[in-house]
Write a structure and sequence with these properties.
The structure is a single chain. By secondary structure, the chain is of the alpha/beta class. It folds into 3 domains: 103 residues, no CATH class; 35 residues, no CATH class; 194 residues, TIM Barrel (Alpha-Beta Barrel). It has 16 helices and 9 strands. The strands form 2 sheets. The protein has a 7-stranded parallel sheet. Strands 2-3 form a two-stranded antiparallel ribbon. α8 packs across α9 and α9 crosses α10. It binds coproporphyrinogen III (CP3). Coproporphyrinogen III binds next to β3 and β4.
Length: 347
């Protein structure tokens, strides 16, 4: 057991003296080496589809900081693109997609059996990484959860309240559900291929799960995560799944048990003490430092990091941020956080 990678040990339910650590969006614009490689690729999407350069930016934060996990460099919106949606990024604003609001729009999507034509370079990135990563580093593959991906496909962009997706759900539920089902099946194929290429863990990002309430949360956040997890576990026994129903609040309670996920990732809207009592009692949790500390730094960063490590010290825990690191973060603050986790006496 003890020669296993630390992240895999935590995901198997082991309580470790020092939690393993990685960071959402650890390869990103806060790093000068990322910005240089992105410029070399031309733009963000070209970087995602250039397997050599995508592997390079995945490795950059591992070289710089020695994180315990590397997350594949890609994006949750590559899957809609593989399904036939137009996708582009507007500098300073974010993603844009062709919209899906009618049955006709939905019918124009390609068959899920054709997604690999677009996604093959992503599997190649995974293969390169599984050769090149240090032996102690775990490789995490990922996809967006169906609801979160659907919110972008329906609105054609990021939205604050996911209004267009909620509107389609209210006005044309059969169409909305057909989209969720198609994304669920496509996500299973996509993650399965990542695992076959060498991903050792997969994470499902449901960034907008918090805007689903009551029965909708069960039907469109929990049930798709459950189906994806169950089919993957059947096809690839032993490959752990991390679920991230961001801002689920009370919905975090029992989410791992209900879906079969091995770990629930926590945003920073819940306190570590509350989550230790109510969520970690069922198994591994990941999180949950506010990413703003990576910008502001100082003693507050060290204190809050230590408090989170302490709150989760009674059970399996992977240290992470509550959401992705932002471009204005200071790379030195990342090192300070790592020191505070790994060498609390020195920080
Ligand atoms: O975590 C990692 O380092 C792995 C790579 C990764 C990216 N996006 C790279 C990226 C992962 C796991 C994602 C997930 C993702 N993408 C999510 C779910 C997690 C979350 O943040 O809530 C979502 C909602 C997206 C969609 C997306 N991609 C948006 C809204 C944006 C624009 C916002 C921004 O930060 O610019 C992106 C672009 C994006 N994805 C960047 C990166 C490094 C920045 C692109 C650039 O270099 O210009």
């Amino acid at each position: 057991m003890s020669d296993q990678k630390t992240i895999l040990r935590a995901l198997a339910g082991e309580t470790l003296p020092t939690p393993p650590i990685w960071m959402m969006r650890q390869a990103g614009r806060y790093l000068p080496e990322y910005r240089a490689t992105r410029a070399q690729a031309g733009d963000f999407l070209s970087l995602c589809y250039n397997s050599e350069l995508a592997a390079e930016v995945t490795l950059q934060p591992i070289r710089r900081y020695g994180f315990d996990a590397a997350i594949l460099f890609a994006d949750i919106l590559l899957l809609p693109q593989a399904l036939g949606a137009d996708l582009w990024f507007v500098t300073g604003e974010g993603p844009r997609l062709s919209t899906i609001t009618t049955q006709g729009d939905f019918d124009k999507l390609t068959s899920i059996d054709d997604i690999d034509e677009t996604l093959n370079p992503i599997y190649e990135t995974v293969r390169i990484l599984s050769r090149e990563l240090p032996s102690e580093t775990t490789l995490i593959g990922f996809a967006g959860a169906p609801w979160t991906v659907a919110t972008y496909m329906i609105a054609g962009k990021g939205t604050k309240d996911q209004g267009p997706a909620h509107a389609l759900k209210a006005e044309n539920r059969p169409l909305f559900e057909a989209l969720i089902d198609k994304l669920t099946d496509a996500t299973i194929l996509y993650l399965s291929k990542q695992i076959e290429a060498g991903a050792e863990v997969v994470k499902i990002f449901d960034s907008w799960a918090g805007s689903l309430e009551g029965a909708d949360f069960i039907k469109y956040a929990l049930e798709p995560a459950m189906k994806i997890t169950q089919v993957l576990k059947h096809k690839h026994p032993g490959v752990p799944v991390i679920a991230f129903p961001r801002e689920a609040g009370e919905g975090y309670i029992g989410f791992a048990k209900a879906t079969g996920a091995d770990c629930v990732a926590l945003d920073n809207s819940v306190s570590a003490e509350w989550a230790a009592q109510n969520v970690q009692k069922d198994g591994c949790v990941q999180g949950n430092l506010a990413s703003s500390h990576m910008v502001t730094g100082g003693q507050a960063l060290v204190d809050e990091t230590r408090a989170i490590v302490k709150a989760f010290s009674g059970g399996p825990h992977i240290f992470n941020l509550g959401h992705g690191i932002t471009p204005d973060a200071d790379p030195d603050n990342v090192q300070r956080m790592i020191d505070a986790v790994r060498e609390p006496a020195l920080a």
